[in-house]
Amino acid sequence: LTEAKAITSLVFYISRQRAVLDREAALASSGYVGVSSLHLTMLSLLPKFSTSSNWIKRLMPTNDVERAQAQIPASSVAASTPSDGNDDSNGNDYLNAAKSDNAAKEIKRSLFGHQASELVDSTIQNVLAYAQTVTELPKGVLPLEAARLFRPAFSWSIEHSRESDYLPSLATLVAFVRRSLTQIERGRRARDEKMRLASNSSEMTTADLRKLVASSPYVELSDDLNTAQMRALASVLLTQQAQRISRNTTMLVSAIEQALVLLWRHLSFFTSGANDEADSTNSPFGSSRAQPSLMAIPLASERETLRSDASISLPPLLSSLSELKFSNDELANAPTHTSFVQMLVRRIKDLVLRDGSVI
After folding, report:
1. Would you state the pLDDT for residue 341?
2. CA 321 to centroid of chain Cα atoms
């Protein structure tokens, strides 16, 4: 995961360097393999990490330090993991799945699991930023020719039932935003509770105090502390945990904004009639950028299908986003973030609800 974070950060940085991409395009015919060869690999990380918790089941400590961290409760509350099991499991399969889920939850709650989750969140942000960069590149060579040409990075399907395993789709972005909203709401409740207890540590039992203090990296002999000392330390620790949750919220909000921009721009591109003549050979990425030409542009009938699917699947999500408000206590420049999200919600509504429906 550490390597994934570093590599995605590097690929994102390189994707912003016009000179590197121009050189790569010039050498493409000679068999040169550059950063463009990682395009699909980058995008495939989104459905792998951002819309499912299955990755946590494969997370295992590999050295003494990680094994020790896996035994320490996380210093902040991680988002709960929804069940990914199949309802038709039974017998031994059911028991094995239950054991696997319980083990995954224990790791998720540990310091080791929480650090892994932070690495995954950073990786997702890098991939979203990369997708934002590669979808909008200058057409011209000279600064005066700075008009932007949109190149889709996701396929047009917005329903998982129509989604292909070959390439991430708009359904991936929708699932990610929906999941992130759930994480933000859980984080808010956890943050509020921690701030409340930080101000009223006298409400905590001695057992809870010892458990909290024992997880602190600052105390080696927690049994030597008296109750008053534990309450003072608990207030500090709870405040730190609340602040860490706020930082995680900031990261999630930024990722949601990036995902909504991508969703809006792709919907605008796919539902317009300007691309009827385009095909999957030359339209999506353009030979001048040496990007893989794999994106199928929806036909007129498919555009109607997309609009119909979007008008059914998006209203609940857009309604939740419309109610999303941030305070300056939980997010810096909260009004700016709130206004930006609401602006994107309005634009997406305008695209998918041409009949003026109110949601």
Report:
1. 94
2. 16
Residue with tokens 């998918």: 352
Query: What is the C-alpha separation between 143 and 18, in angstroms, rounded?
Result: 12
Distance of CA 77 to the CA centre of its chain: 18
At 142 the pLDDT is 39
Q: Which long-range contacts (CB under 8 A, 24 or more apart) does 158-162 make?
A: 158/306, 158/309, 158/310, 158/313, 158/314, 159/309, 159/313, 162/305, 162/309
Encode burial over 60-71: b for 16+ CB neighbours within 10 A, e otherwise: ebeeeebeebbe
- At residue 290, φ and ψ (nearest 5 deg) are 55, 30
**DSSP-derived secondary structure letter, 214:** H
What pLDDT does 261 receive? 94
Q: Residue 110 gets which letter from DSSP?
A: B
Please give the pLDDT value at position 36. Answer: 74
Higher pLDDT pick, 284 / 251: 251
Element (H, E) at 138: strand 136-138
Residue 136: strand pairing partners: 150
> Is the pTM value of this prediction over 0.85?
no
Nearby residues of 346 by Cβ (< 8 Å), 6 or more positions away: none
Q: What is the mean pLDDT of the chain?
A: 75
pLDDT of 184 strictly over 70 = yes
Round to whole Å and give the CA distance between 30 and 356.
Answer: 52
Whole-number Å distance between alpha carbons of 319 and 252: 18
Tokens of 301: 């009938």
